[in-house]
Amino acid sequence: MNLSGAEILVRCLQEEGVEHVFGYPGGAVLHIYDALFQQDQVKHVLVRHEQGAVHAADGYARATGRTGVVLVTSGPGATNAVTGIATAYMDSIPLVVLTGQVPTSLIGNDAFQEVDNVGITRPCVKHNFLVKDVNDIAETIKKAFYIASTGRPGPVLVDIPKDVTDPKVKVPFVYPDQIRMRSYNPTVKGHPGQIRRAVEMMLAAKRPMIYSGGGVILGRAAEPLTRLTRQLGFPITNTLMGLGGYPASDRQFVGMLGMHGTYEANMAMHHCDVLIAIGARFDDRVTGNLAKFCPTAKIVHIDVDPASISKNVKVDVPIVGEVDTVLQEMIRLLEHEGGQPDGEALKAWWAQIEEWRGMNCLRYRMSDEVIKPQYVVEKLWEITGGDAYVTSDVGQHQMWAAQYYRFDKPNRWINSGGLGTMGFGLPAALGVKTAFPEAEVVCITGEGSIQMNIQELSTALQYYLPVKVVSLNNRYLGMVRQWQEFFYSGRYAMSYMEALPDFVKLAEAYGHVGMRIEKPGDVEGALREAFALKDRLVFMDFQTDPTENVYPMVPAGAGLNEMILV
Amino acid sequence: MRHIISILMENEAGALSRVAGLFSARGYNIESLCVAPTQDDTLSRLTLVTRGDDQIIEQILKQLNKLIEVVKVQDIEDAPHIERELMLIKLQAAGADRDEVMRLCEIFRGNIIDVTETSYTAQLVGPGEKLDAFIEALGRIPVIEVVRSGALGISRGPRGMTV
Ligand SMILES: Cc1cc2nc3c(=O)[nH]c(=O)nc-3n(C[C@H](O)[C@H](O)[C@H](O)COP(=O)(O)OP(=O)(O)OC[C@H]3O[C@@H](n4cnc5c(N)ncnc54)[C@H](O)[C@@H]3O)c2cc1C
Ligand SMILES: Cc1ncc(C[n+]2csc(CCOP(=O)(O)OP(=O)(O)O)c2C)c(N)n1
Ligand SMILES: [Mg+2]
Fold first, then answer.
1. Closest CB from B9, B17, B66 relative to A122
2. Is the distance from CB of A274 to CB of A205 less than 8 angstroms?
3. Contact call for B14 and A130, based on CB within 8 A
4. Which pLDDT score is estimated for A64?
5. DSSP string covering A24-35, please?
6. Nearest ligand 1 atom to alpha carbon A221
7. Of A285, A374, A394, A419, which is best to mutate to test ligand 2, by the most ligand atoms within 8 angstroms of its C-beta?
8. Given this model, what pLDDT does residue A498 score?
9. In this predicted model, what pLDDT tens digit does every residue of A103-136 receive, in sequence order?
10. Would you say the CB of residue A393 lies under 6 angstroms from ligand 2?
């Protein structure tokens, strides 16, 4: 049967098992929207801003592990999507972004709503395509999904000129079963010799440390990671992106590491003699001053992307491969060959770590007068049984969410780490709720960030996506204010929001429930009340302490052992 | 250190800009870049000259390999190889200078490929230093225009760079 380009595109999405597309229509994609309209297998969520569409698809992808799909029009539709694409790129999130383009005959003519989508997005996609012939659509879409989801995942953009989806031009449709690309072969299995060397090094360690990251979440390897860590009895820390990869409530977990990591995690990093890095990329927020990073450690690094290895920190045993298969192989080696870690040394090491843990670096002083943001997150954790999907925006509230909501499962913590995009949280929460309508989905945000995509409250009403918004409203761009307090002698340049909307009324105007909470004594009650409203989006505006800071903190240029504590 | 990197990539629109974009986005340096089709018309071969310490060169090779359209990357510095560059150079040449230019061309095994009453255009092939040396040797003879291809490189011996 012959189909038009638009019909082919929709059929491709069906073949890929896509259930939801997040998008916003416009001239260049009208043929595609018309084809979408005439079927009901692929559902479309109409957002209120294209950035929201990409973040929603991204949240969907992070929670499910499946590829998120976006559809936007040419020109401004595509440029609005760029921040979302860059956000996904930095955190290696699989997306397929379909953008409309002006007809092929007009490309390069400064035509109406023309922008070079392939050129603009080149530095922030894993790959992109311009489809110039209707006969190429199916294969291109197949490649796009394949590239986005394999190896180190990432966003792939497919730019489609309007004439290519012309309903009058019909061609045969065949969806390829398989795709082979001579230039793209993501390595899967780690080198056995290297894995063996790594295991030997781990067993010989006196002060071992496991440092795992987003690769464990992306590679669905929380289970083997947990098994291996327990088997070895080693301490483990997670990056911001890796939280939930190992259960946070377990004794062996020493908290997040890095700039706002725990004292015990950062000290253990600094003093370890063997570091096992698993699906983590030695980001500068993690390493602090590179010259002072892990001065006494031999380093094993497992990563599917060879370019992540020895990029910032030279490693001793590189293993290029999928975390899942590499960890399975390590477990197999340990079981079959009965190697044992050095128990005596490990005992002494743990004694040292417990001493560091005894500093209780995440303690904070409660107040009867003003709500402490940390307290809100702790109560939220309690009331949701630690089992909610938590998205966040960017700033202090993001760090408090990471520190005080203890994630025991992977894919539950959804935030923008690499790009640090304010405005991510709400649309991402809507994406998660779209995937899991029955699950509790919470967006922890700040009064600054939430205003960057607040319009998505309208999308939430239209598609019945009753998420909970927990706003830690400190009246400040708090993270900026904190740096100004520490490093600019308290000159709070433009970090105070003079005028804020009445968020309760705002929520109500969008058809939702708004609550303002001002007293510490009301926090728990308000949370319980909000979560009892199962079928409503509730916007909780917590008036929190404007002077509160995120501790511990590794200042720029310092080593991980040089933290500012409370 | 200077490295000559050879890249086989899909002969598709946009592939070159990905390579060039990678270098500018990541702040790597490009001294020269040269690209043309190969005997296999689905592939083009790109040769570029860059500088960096071992860690930077390693990153450059890995990042190039990550580009989806790049099929193969080789640092040809790794094995015995031959390097050549083409130069077309237009010189003001009148009176006694005409003989001088001819003589230099002969010494450097160049050819004169265009002649007017007041100018010669010469063509020279060789490693970059040889071309530099030719320009140096011209002394006070005025140079009107220099066009250089950038370095090309190929490994010695019977084995080729194939996919
Ligand atoms: C305000 C703010 C503060 C921050 N503070 C901190 C902080 O204190 N601590 C902190 O940790 N971060 C912090 N970050 C986040 C930081 O910027 C980085 O995003 C984060 O550290 C990177 O995490 P990661 O190393 O786990 O890498 P990711 O970005 O998650 O990358 C994953 C790595 O795993 C690899 N990988 C992917 N899939 C697989 C697979 N299947 N198999 C094997 N490997 C795979 C990838 O190639 C990549 O190298 C902060 C961010 C913000 C916005
Ligand atoms: C789009 C964007 N612009 C600017 C920044 C820089 N920035 C990082 S945190 C922050 C303040 C965020 O304020 P708020 O959302 O109120 O959170 P808080 O830190 O107060 O908890 C800013 C401006 C950013 N990360 N993203
Ligand atoms: Mg704030």
1. B17
2. yes
3. yes
4. 98
5. E--GGGHHHHHH
6. 41
7. A394
8. 86
9. 999 999 999 999 999 999 999 999 999 999 999 9
10. yes
Closest CA to B18 of A368, A128, A329: A128
| Coil, helix or strand at residue A202 | helix
- Which residues, including other chains, have CB under 8 Å from residue A173's CB and lie 6 or more apart? A1, A2, A3, A7, A8, A11, A138
Single residue among B78, B107, B134 that ends a domain in this structure: B78
For the segment A399-422, the average pLDDT, to the nearest whole number, is: 98
The DSSP H or E segment spanning A513 is: strand A513-517
Residues 296-325 of A with CB under 8 A from B: 305-307, 310-311, 314
pLDDT of residue A15: 98
Find where tokens 């760029």 sit: A82
Residue where a domain terminates, one of B78, B102, B128: B78
Let me know whether B45 and B96 are in one domain. no
pLDDT value of residue A317: 98
Tell me, yes or no, if the pTM score tops 0.95: yes
Domain that holds residue B9: 2-78
How far apart are alpha carbons A130 and A116 in whole angstroms?
10
Number of residues in chain A: 566
Distance between CA atoms of residues B124 and B117, nearest Å: 21
A474 lines ligand 2 (CB under 6 A): yes
CA distances for A542 relative to A312, A414, A471, A518, angstroms? 40, 21, 6, 6
Sorted by sequence, the CB contacts under 8 Å of residue A193 that are 6+ apart come out as none
Taken in order A418, A21, A184, B8, the sign of the CA dihedral is negative
Would you say A422 and A500 are in contact if contact means Cβ atoms under 8 Å apart?
Answer: no
Is A479 annotated in the active site?
yes
Is A130 an interface residue toward B (CB < 8 Å)?
yes
B9 and B73, same structural domain?
yes
Residue A237 and residue A357: Cα distance in Å, rounded?
Answer: 13
Query: Which residue in A337, A216, A198 sits closest to A274, CA to CA?
Result: A198
Q: How far is the CA of A238 from the centre of ligand 1 (A)?
A: 9
How confident is the prediction for chain A on average, in pLDDT?
97
Q: Are A118 and A97 in contact (CB under 8 A)?
A: no
Chain mean position to CA A116: 27
Cα-Cα-Cα-Cα dihedral sign, residues A38, A42, A48, A50:
negative
Cα dihedral A341, A342, A344, A347 sign: negative
Q: Give SS3 for A301.
A: strand
Q: Do B55 and A310 touch (CB under 8 A)?
A: yes
Identity (one letter) of the amino acid at A339?
G
- Confirm whether B55 is domain-assigned: yes
Q: How many domains are there within chain B?
A: 2
Say if CB A560 and CB A394 are below 8 A apart.
no
For residues A19 and A6, give the distance between their C-alpha atoms in angstroms, rounded to a whole number.
17
